[in-house]
Amino acid sequence: MATLYSVLVVLHLIGWAIVLGGTLTNLRPPRIAKGVLHGALTALVTGLLLVGLASGPLDYDLNHVKIGVKLVIAVVVTALVVVASRRKERVTTGMVGSIAALTAVNVALAVLWR
To answer: Keywords, A to Z (predicted)?
Structure first.
């Protein structure tokens, strides 16, 4: 189980890296790269699987408030990506920037909130 958990952590980080990199490189002109949606969904699903494994079979001590805040941010980022990917011609720099900023905040919370 610990190996599966480690593989999920790697996939989770790759998902957030795709979202952050895909949005930062496409601020001007503002657009959402196709991979950003897949990265957001990968990060969201692997995050849920990580919490499930950590609270179940691995019995880790979890900070549920931190997980809740990160989940809300991840859902908002995913929703923004879905909306932006459907509005191809009307995507604004603010929308793409907010996706990048919220992704950076989510990563910072993971590292800094103990």
So the answer is: Membrane, Transmembrane, Transmembrane helix
The candidate with the shortest Cα–Cα distance to 33, out of 107, 84, 90, is 84
pTM of the predicted model, to two decimals?
0.92
40-52 burial: b if 16+ Cβ within 10 Å, else e:
bebbbbbbeebbe
Token output for 64: 């549920």
Domain span at 12? 2-112
Give counts: helices (H), strands (E), the chain: 4, 0
Count the domains in the chain: 1
Tell me how far apart the alpha carbons of residues 30 and 78 are, in angstroms, rounded to a whole number.
17
Tokens of 6: 């480690």
Render pLDDT for 10-43 as a digit per residue (tens, 0 to 9). 999 999 999 999 999 998 889 998 899 999 999 9
